[in-house]
Amino acid sequence: MNVRLNITMDEDLYMRLKKELPPKGISAFIASAIRARLQPDRQALDAAYKAAAEEAWRKKLAHDWKTTELEDWPR
Question: Using CA atoms, how far apart are residues 3 and 39, in angstroms rounded to an integer?
Fold first, then answer.
């Protein structure tokens, strides 16, 4: 659900937004920028980590590096 928001910003910044974005793209751009800046919540991170753990190339990489966990490193 979308909510309407009233914000203030420098006129120069607003003019850049109007120049560089499509006419109906400012809201989506601002929402995307805020989403990228805010930390994701724990559930989103957990879901992303679980999905990444199932990727075949990550499993192969983990398998290839497993031997380094067994080596006797100097102390």
Answer: 21
| Helix 11-20, helix 26-37: angle, nearest 10 | 110
The helix-helix angle for 42-53 and 56-70 (nearest 10°) equals 80
Whether the per-residue pLDDT at 73 is higher than 70: the answer is no
Q: Which residues of 10-38 are buried (b: 16+ CB within 10 A; e: fewer)?
A: eeeeeeeeeeeeeeeeeeeeeeeeeeeee
- Rounded-to-integer distance, Cα 41 and Cα 50, Å: 15
Rounded to two decimals, what is the model's pTM? 0.51
CA 36 – CA 49 distance, rounded (Å): 18
